[in-house]
Amino acid sequence: MKIYRKVILTTFLLMLMSINAVAQKFTTHSVKAGETLESIAKRYNVSEQGILNYNKEIKKGQALRANTILVIPSANGAAVKKDSVSEVNTLLQALQGDESATQQREPIGYTSHRTKRKETLFGISKQYNISEDEIKRYNKELYSVQLKKGMILKIPKYKRVDPSEKAYIEENYEIYRVQPKETRWSIANKYGITIDSLLVLNPKLSKITDYLSSGQELLLPKILGSSIKDQETQLYNSYTVPAKQTFYSLEKKFGLTANEIIALNPEIKERGGLKEGMVLRIPAKKVETGEVNIENYNFYEVKPKQTEFSLTRKFGVTYKELLELNPELKDGLKAGMVLKLPKAQTGNFDVKNALILDKINLRDSINILNRPKLVFLLPFRLDRLDLNNNESTKSAIENRKDVKYSLGLYSGAMVALDSIAKLGISVDVKTYDTQLDMNRTKGILQKENLIGVSAIFGPLEAKSLKEVALQASEYGVPVVAPLTDKSDLSLNNVFFALPSEKVMEEHMMTYVEGLRTKENVIIIADQKNKPTESALLMKFPGAKIVALKEDRTVDIDKISKILSMETENWVFLETDQANVVYHVGSLLNSLISKEIGIRLFTTDKNKAFDSEIVSYSHLSNLRFTYPSASREIGENSFVQSYRKKYGADPDAYAIRGFDLTYDLLLKLAYKNDLVIASKLVGETEYVGNKFNFNKDISSGYYNRASYILGYENMNIIELKD
Predict the structure, then answer these.
(1) Is 677 exposed, middle or buried (0-12, 13-18, 19+ CB in 10 A)?
(2) May I ask which residue range the UniProt record assigns to the signal sequence (predicted)?
């Protein structure tokens, strides 16, 4: 009861205010002429390394340029006095994408609008093709009162933009990843645009520094000709300029004119001509590779400084095998090459849509300037809880699953916020109690400004989830469904955190298929699970079927006749009836002998297997094996932190709340965009859950990661694939 009381009180406070989970306070400093890293560190009473950690564009011993804006961590967590308040505001606006940091467009006139019953500000903004903030700007009362029927609103009119002049048509633009040593000027020049256009296309770029980090992603117009339908993709090789290299010799070597080489490598012009050691981008000669076969092969893009030796070790293939699949390797390995590899290769990497991705350590990849903004929408039902009456509160929690689930998830999420703060990430959090009321949920969404929200956690119930997802999609905000594996609607912006029954069934079959040599497979399935029986027969042709009798028992003579003494017998039991699990478990346990070995499997461990009538020792003797969305956990740092915070051990929902929130925040701290991060990051795993979100063609993002667990010596252990 102590834990729930603490969580409820915490939640109640969060209803009243927004949390800013800050691990480290910062200020900024505009470098003056003659200042050094040492003098600035002394001024703010911090170490030089502390400043370097948050300003990757400067190096120790390097002279500081005047007017460079540095991020300064405070010495003791307190705010540091600034020379100019406006400087701080400008920096924060630039980092957070604050609308006030950009110039507001001026209206060319106004029109009046009388509000109707049930009309919303969102609907009016869509009707007039303007933002809600633009309506509020000219109707100041809307900042303090709700929209009501009969209000006369002043609607601004703006100059219409010809569709042909629109700055952003998706098919004409691409995502570009910044390469080492590239500058804003060189990238703008490469794409034939101005730096101002670059900033318009990428509003999150800082307005006060020109710094670009390697790997940073930018939106840029496709180079002319690159969007022609069905054209071949041009690949490029890297070429290091030797001493005394001339444009004439480059023209002879690669068949390109000097102007073409400069257009592909604007840094030549930026640095005043060809320089020894420059790495040039040269179009690769087309190699006829035939039709791309993603059924039998995976593909990997070679990274800078990788060698044939490192790649053969990474993928467990010989150089001869690599050369057979990739004949172009005879001319040497080059960064940017796309290599074909056998589908069956495994190692320290992830595969998404036949593309091999190097595993990313999210903890080492965070950007402390990213500031995630989360909104929790959960049915805490504070309207039904009397905090002054412990017995009443305890009874309400025990009898209401929605309350228990919400408090469990949220208590784990709070520990995740504490953990992410220790990594130096600040998080803005707002929490709302939906009270399991659709109208209340709609009201929260109308009141809450979703612009700039990184993600919404919840709600739990299906109807509210659909409503929230549809409204959030208007703002491009992802919605995380913590306890849901699917939806009957196409919700493109929802991340379904639970792996589906189908995913776990496939995982189980693949696991057994990879483990099996010549074991005798037997299938026992009730009428409801006949589709699973058919799927097992397709996976294991020749498997023997044992039918249940009318009383839902198995004929001992029939099963005894098909048990093998030469090899182990693997029995799949597919049922949701506890009495069937009890009977089959007892029967199989009695048939185990020195001559006969039996192991029990299922593709769906439901409540029937956890029934009180089912013998735990029988399941252990049968080494019962099954797929699971989560795993058992022991004593670890999370349990200790949770116990210290709440005075109790976490339940399964608290563990899921921690894992899901921690994963969400790490990905947002990495890319500040959950969708992009999920494309780049493969499988992640934390305390008791793992995640691998894949986009469905017609719907949202589904978790395809699960565990294989097994009973062994009266313990449940994780079995490795």
Answers:
(1) buried
(2) 1-23
